[in-house]
């Protein structure tokens, strides 16, 4: 499994026979500029944690190119189904086995609406179980006690956590979240894209190190192998 950071909260997850794309926000991200091309993205599945524009902006354009299946909560799935996309709706606590592996849709504490004001259902996160690995993608979320349920069912190999603060958890709460999910290997995301969520990278990494944990802060286009 290879996880490539495409900026903000956008991830490309490459498996042996499939590619997953999480929360595509590329053309509107000033930090990406021209380094990532939508035409180069050919996911088999798109996973959406919630409906905010900085997570769904490029869904329709990518869907036109390669016809991926969009996986999200019921409201988001129906929104894109009406636009002619192939979808698979889920909701909190549910699991489904796809051709690449199994997804569990888990709780996130945030808000969710489309740029046009359409209700985007309740936000969530995903646990991906594929190729012998378990990866938790938290989505935009506050620290929540529900995270303690995750290690009761899964032994995580990686936790992908928002660390930018203001709209989501910050660094200190992300450390607590890694305790809750019992995973000391963390990929940070949802930081630096705009002023509200800029972080001090050195302080962030030192905070995790002092807690006996490893925080990965990837550059745009960099890949973490599991």
TrEMBL record:
Domain Metallo-beta-lactamase residue range list: 7-190
Highest taxon of source: Bacteria
One MF term in the entry's GO annotations: hydrolase activity
The keyword Aminoacyl-tRNA synthetase belongs to this UniProt entry's keyword annotation: no
Assigned keywords, A-Z: Hydrolase
InterPro entries to which the protein is assigned, alphabetical: Metallo-B-lactamas, RibonucZ/Hydroxyglut_hydro, UPF0173, UPF0173_UPF0282_UlaG_hydrolase
Similarity field: Belongs to the UPF0173 family.
NCBIfam families: PRK00685.1
HAMAP family: UPF0173
This protein's name: UPF0173 metal-dependent hydrolase GWK09_11415
Organism: Muriicola jejuensis
């Amino acid at each position: 499994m290879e996880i490539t950071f495409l900026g903000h909260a956008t991830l490309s997850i490459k498996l042996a026979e499939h590619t997953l794309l999480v929360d595509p926000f590329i053309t509107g991200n000033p930090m990406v500029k021209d380094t990532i091309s939508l035409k180069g993205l050919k996911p088999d599945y798109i996973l959406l944690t919630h409906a905010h524009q900085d997570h769904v902006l490029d869904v329709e354009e990518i869907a036109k190119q390669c016809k991926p299946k969009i996986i999200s909560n019921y409201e988001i799935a129906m929104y894109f189904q009406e636009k002619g996309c192939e979808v698979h709706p889920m909701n909190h606590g549910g699991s489904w086995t796809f051709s690449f592996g199994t997804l569990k849709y888990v709780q996130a504490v945030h808000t969710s609406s489309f740029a046009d004001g359409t209700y985007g259902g309740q936000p969530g996160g995903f646990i991906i179980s594929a190729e012998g690995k378990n990866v938790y993608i938290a989505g935009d979320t506050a620290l929540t006690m529900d995270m303690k349920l995750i290690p009761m069912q899964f032994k995580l190999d990686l936790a992908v956590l928002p660390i930018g603060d203001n709209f989501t958890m910050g660094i200190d709460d992300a450390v607590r979240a890694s305790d809750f999910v019992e995973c000391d290997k963390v990929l940070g995301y949802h930081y630096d894209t705009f002023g509200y969520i800029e972080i001090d990278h050195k302080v962030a990494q030192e905070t995790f190190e002092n807690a006996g944990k490893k925080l990965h802060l990837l550059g745009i286009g960099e890949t973490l192998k599991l």
